[in-house]
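Batch manifest, entry 17 of 40.
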Amino acid sequence: MGTMFRLSICCCIASALACAKSADEATMDTGVGEMTMPEPVAPPATIALGDVAGKWQFRATPESGSDTSVTQYVLNATGDTSGWTITFPNRPSVPMRVKVDGDSIIASAGPYRSVRRKSVQVTTDNVLRLQNGRLVGMTVAHYTTRGPDSVLRLRTEGTRAP
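Output type: structure tokens
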């Protein structure tokens, strides 16, 4: 009986293998055609700070809320991560900490006296990308208040100063 059982198992396995289609044949029989792999997407090129060195006129506009007034300032960019500043009208320059991550410039400043909120200190975090000759991105402003941290998100856009 043991020999008959083994023979039955072997016949079942052989039948199953004979009837099975290969993975390639199964793909071809679907009517869809051969499967193709998508083209790999190249990561964005790393931005060179030398490409953005110079003075930029910036406008920052809140994304939401009742105060939609525009904040204007000048960004002074250098060819490396040192010496970057922002200057608001009638104010001293504020130094920035800058680093590059792929196609993005990540810049932080502060704490400094807020232009938008009197007698309040603010720290700003910016992510900027060079698009069509403009620096565009987002700024998140963190205001120091007596209660919980107050946050404002702004869209930022800069054009080269003449």
